[in-house]
Amino acid sequence: MFLRLKSLLPGFAFVVLTGLVAYLVVVPIVLLIWGGFKPDGLVTSSGFTLSNYIDLYSMKRTYALMLNTVIFAAGSTLVSTFFATLLAWFIERTEIPCKRWVRTAVIAPMAVPPMLIAMSWVLLGSPKIGFFNLLLKNIFGLKTAPLNIYSFPGMIFIQGITLVPGAFLLLSFAFRNMDPVFEDASAASGRGVFTTLHRIVLPILRPALLAVSILTFMVSMAVFDIPGIIGLPAKIKVLSLQIYLAVMDPEGIADFGTVSALSSVFFVAILLLSYLYYRQTRTASKFATITGREFKPKMMDLGRWRYGALAFVGLYVLFATGFPLAILFWTSLMPYYASFSLERLHVASLNNYRTILDYPRVLMALENTFIVALVTAAAVVFLATLVSWVIVRSKFRARKLLDVLSVLPMSLPHIMLGLGLIYVYLTVKIGIYGTIWIIVIAYVTSYITYGTRMLNSTMYQIHGELEEVAQVSGASTIRVLRTIIVPLMAPSMFGLWIWVLIGSIRELSAALVLQSYKSLVLSTVLWSIWEHGELPKAATLGVIAVVFLFSVMAVGQMLSRRFELFTGKR
Amino acid sequence: MVEVKKLFKQFTTERGEVRAISGVDFEVAAGEFFTLLGPSGCGKSTTLRCIAGLEKPQAGEIVIGDRVVFSGERNIFVPPNLRDIAMVFQSYAIWPHMTVFANVAYPLDGKMPKARVKERVMDVLRTVGIEDMASRPATQLSGGQQQRVAVARAIVKGAKVLLFDEPLSNLDARLRVHMRAEFKSLQEKLGFSAIYVTHDQDEALSLSDRVAVMNEGRIVEIGPPAEVYSHPKVRFTAEFVGSYNLFPGTIVKGEEDRDVALTAIGEVECVLPERATDQVVVGIRPEHIEIVEKSEDSRKMRNVFQGTVTSGLFLGRVRDCVMQVGSINVRAQVPASREMSPGDDVYLHFPPKFCIALAAS
């Protein structure tokens, strides 16, 4: 009898796990969609109406909004894919000098919160105060500022740049895993480098390129940070910004009905895109370039052009990261905002850094961020490990459901997730509304997808027989998890922990929508300081954040190399 | 020691339901070395995994010792960690994050005091000959050494039944032969029942007390190695275990009222099948065919046939020849010293005791 009960335990645990993930992921979405059908948008009120949708589709500005969003996403994708492809090719496939530095310089900016990049570019490219504008006006004696960051192209450019590191990682993986045998065969057939490139290499990479583009497009549709900082003053609205404005309506009562309807449409659109992405990655895997044999990719000798390539990369890094961080630092040294000029050098001081912690809001925000980031990272690692293990190793027939549930949050823009959670916790009154805990829930939900994908790939590499022989040797399920799975997964779990830690500190939109006076975090207090026009203070906080995040990243890298346990690959 | 009754197992794949085992029945006695032999996909590994509890069959019964560990009817399923078994995997499955000692001690952890664990583990390591590697990290072992660690881990808890899933297929040929002998002596010394899965007939024949030949989810034939090799009862066994020349024939009354098989090459005296049938398949192994003198006396002997050599390959120990006998191609293995050239005429003798006749079906 006891054996019977014990044998039901795994099934029970599976149900609990799936239920938890479903609760985190599905409930906000369902309430959001449901709210669209309520006259006042509140799920607890009675009535069912299509008027929200009708109003939405009858307004011209809805279509303008959608068009803006699509153009913005398409533009960002183009910019990002262009740079990411070139950089990935340079680093993975050519003999460009200083490769390790270049790679670090391209990837490291992932630690920088995008809102800081936007802020820095305002400081560089705004018509009134932008450094580049003043410089160019001085040099060329222009009357009006040549650059205007508060424009559609400006927004697209910055968004594109911030998406490069992510796209670069995916593309460099694809480049690295391309078996050089295909190029060898082309050479053996008498074809030169250029022909090989455009008739063999690019077509083989096309599925991967397309997949990365679709993913980038999806992300660009959903982001808020940059359209939020630049779009507001530029009066360019994309969907995410519109949702934010509608929810934070200063006049008090947000039009939840229309917002929910709008969000639901948005969500469905991104869901369709993610299905497209899923199909595309299936195709890409048919062009499977990973043969399992060990091979060294063919490196192209650039000859005279190698310094030209290095210069290109250098310029890219300068404009993407160098100048923005520099102007940020400069601004943090100023007592009040002023553009860079040598005369101002004497006013520069570290005063702002000394006083920044005197502001109680800032101190509280930093404390909150600390707690939120640590709890989120731990929760995500814990949850993702269990989910990943069930998806990859268990024999439950319903594990496909768990897989689908864990992928769903990818299609949910964070601002919508925030909105959905507002509904959930206004309805389910467990008192976390307005606290940092609702923010933790938002973050954990948003990282489930990345966490499970990352751990899945490691879990697949752990030979199933390592687990089976432990079972046969008498170990219970818990013991197998504890003594075999977790030690072998540890490096990936650590990597995930660092990633989520950094991401939680950077995250803005969900925290913004869910904020209250006592749940400020670093990103929201930074946003509010910026909105109040206190540029030097914002810059100071920004620099502190960047330095901290870079350190976390660096320490993480070092530790994971030290930590390098065996993954069981033979 | 182990009873497997009417086992059924199917898998759900993208292509639908795949029947892995359909009605497998056998028993393994205490201390017996029992092998499941068959081609890839025949269900032998699945059967083994069902006995281990790593797969759950749809129907049937499995008994280990005096305990029913699986019963489809009575809805009993004992998980693998509670069965009195141990297993050696094809990939050895040595945990890379532990030392040799920790790997072998794992089944005993928490079940007895540390001192006793250490004693037992070192004892077992000595038995397999790797006691000086106890503190070595598992990643620094060669294939053969990993193999021994896997075996040590399997015998350390004294399980009565040991399961082997193609444990030698990842080793090179020489090591394989060596380890084969070691398995056998280990089993004889320690007295466990071994259920061994392989597609390699040399292993099966040399190690086993009994061999079960499997094909397409069913056991085709069970018997001691000599029987299975020399007197296969079924065509599949004849074709799979070693090689056979096979050609159809009919049982008729021949000289002196004996039953002989009438074939395309003439009357062949052979060992008749157990069940009386008319249509048979006659077979003889290439190595049993003798080349005899081309003389009148030879021609008058029974089971002598004339043939023409079409090819002869020198293989070192033997010469592998193909001859045309009437309308049939016959493969024979002759001593390498014998010269054979295409076009030569030869007289082949099929010793009756090595000719088998299988029911044609």
Report on this structure.
The complex is a heterodimer of chains A (570) and B (361). Chain A is an all-alpha fold and 570 residues long. In chain A, 73% of the residues lie in helices and 0% in strands. Chain A contains 23 helices and no strands. The radius of gyration of chain A is 25 Å and the shape is globular. The model of chain A is unreliable at 565-570 (pLDDT under 50). With 361 residues, chain B is α+β, with helices and mostly antiparallel strands. Chain B folds into two domains: 2-235, 3-Layer(aba) Sandwich (Rossmann fold), CATH 3.40.50.300; 243-359, Beta Barrel (OB fold (Dihydrolipoamide Acetyltransferase, E2P)), CATH 2.40.50.100. Chain B is built from nine helices and 21 strands. Chain B has a six-stranded mixed sheet, sandwiched between helices. In chain B, strands 2-1-4-5-6 form a five-stranded antiparallel sheet, covered by helices on one side. Chain B has a five-stranded antiparallel sheet with strand order 14-13-12-15-21. Chain B starts with a strand and ends with a strand. The A-B interface holds A 3, 7, 463, 465-466, 468-476, 483-484, 487-488, 565-568, 570 and B 52-54, 77-83, 85-87, 89-91, 93, 95-97, 106-107, 111, 139, 150, 153, 157, 163.
Keywords:
heterodimer; A: 570 residues; mainly alpha; MetI-like fold; 2 domains; 23 helices; 73% helix; B: 361 residues; alpha+beta; Rossmann fold; OB fold (Dihydrolipoamide Acetyltransferase, E2P); five-stranded antiparallel sheet; elongated
Uncertain spans of chain B: none
Structural class of chain A: mainly alpha
Sketch the topology of chain A as an H/E string, one letter per element. HHHHHHHHHHHHHHHHHHHHHHH
Largest interface: A-B, 23 and 28 residues
Characterize the largest beta sheet of chain B: strand count, sense, and whether it forms a barrel.
6 strands, mixed
| Molecular shape of chain A | globular
Count of helical stretches of chain B: 9
Strand content bin of chain B: 35-45%
Which strand order do you get reading across the main beta sheet of chain B?
7-8-9-3-10-11
Number of strands of chain B: 21
Number of helices of chain A: 23
Report the top-level CATH class of the largest domain in chain A: Mainly Alpha
Fraction in helix of chain A: over 70%
Question: What general outline of chain B do the C-alpha atoms trace?
Answer: elongated
Please give the oligomerization state of what you see.
heterodimer
